[in-house]
Amino acid sequence: MAWLVYLAFGTAFGWVLSRSGAADYDYVQGMFLLEKFQLYGIIGTAVAVIAPGLWLLKRVGRTAFGEPLVVKPKPHHRGNIAGGVLFGIGWSITGMCPGPILVNVGEGKIYALAGGLVGAAVFGSLYERLTTSLGLPALEIERTNG
């Protein structure tokens, strides 16, 4: 039943991203060229809403469904810097961020899904080679029953 809540929130969030221009190439390019400032406001609003919410969740220690909240700190390594730079370059050149891929697909931009799948495949095929050069953690594969 919880999946209905997730679906509702995800749909609402996707609608907001679509209507705000966060998935629009022209808005993203305008942001990086410092010509359009709407997305900076969206990002700032997201931080202003999420930061107190995360603080409260960590303080309470439970999710909205009463389950224990476990937030593991992410490891720090050179790959964070390289990945961040690569992400920023790709985002600014293509005007596409991985976050709104499904928003783009919902808007009929199927090439966004193709780009995401190609990017994931390239990363997956290179990961083992990058672990030593960038000091990345070993890939952990979580198996589930069913």
Structural summary, described in words:
By secondary structure, the protein is mainly α. It folds into two domains: 1-71; 75-140 and 142-146, no CATH class. Helices cover 67% and strands 0% of the residues. The chain is built from six helices and no strands. The radius of gyration is 18 Å and the shape is globular. The model has no long low-confidence stretch (mean pLDDT 85).
**Radius of gyration from the alpha-carbon trace, in angstroms:** 18 Å
Series of secondary-structure elements, N-terminal to C-terminal: HHHHHH
Helix and strand content put the structural class at mainly alpha
- What share of the residues does DSSP label as strand, in percent? under 5%
| Major sheet | none
When the domains are counted, the total is 2
Q: Helix coverage percent of residues? A: 55-70%
| First-residue to last-residue Cα separation | 18 Å
Low-confidence stretches: none
What is the overall number of helices? Answer: 6
Strand tally is 0
Instruction: Please state the overall shape, judged from the principal axes of the Cα atoms.
Output: globular
Secondary-structure blueprint of this entry?
Layout: H1 2-20, H2 25-32, H3 38-60, H4 78-94, H5 101-106, H6 110-134
Helix pairs in contact: 2-4
Which key terms come to mind for this protein?
mainly alpha, 0% strand, globular, 146 residues, 6 helices, 2 domains
How is this structure best summarized?
This protein is mainly α and 146 residues long. Helices cover 67% and strands 0% of the residues. It has helices at residues 2-20, 25-32, 38-60, 78-94, 101-106, 110-134.
